[in-house]
Amino acid sequence: MNTHSTMDSRSRAMTEPGSLREVWVFLMGMGIALMFLGLAAVGSSLIATFATMLVFGILLLLGAIFQVVTAFWGRSWRGFFLHLLTGVLYLVCRLLLVNNTVGAALGLTLLVAVCLMVSGAVRIVLAAVERFDGWGWVFMNGIVSVLLGAAIWRQWPLSGLWVIGLFVGIEMLFSGLSWIMLAVAARSGAASPA
Q1: CB 124 within 8 A of CB 146
Q2: Quick check: 1 pLDDT over 70?
């Protein structure tokens, strides 16, 4: 009973805002590192695009290995062929990605452009038709999405060489900023009495 109550108090402490006070320096360092990596990715978006494709290829290879090992580990299982086929598919996709990195980046960029335009158009139409609270912001979000998608589409295939790296860099910048803000909040919580 004593061990159970100790574990409960620890899990409650980790969900409270003040529980990050002890690691605020680590959070700040991680946020700063992510922001530097994000700036580097934005500044060298071509390199970041190819690095992202390489990482995606490695993840596909690991997924293929795990699927095939899982399939052969449970040969008598009814899902054997499904896992084996999935592993082979991951491996084929990985080989295509590594052997034609530029083509994969171009295809993924085109998919991003189409998704941005379609999702933006849906937001515009729904916001204009429904007129719910805050519909103007959703309408504006839709316009921005359509414009971004159209800009990527218009510069395609050249945009396929830098868009993915740019988007990854921007995401890293904002992720780093959020970790820094969390560290600042945790530190200020440490300064105030509990």
Answers
A1: yes
A2: no
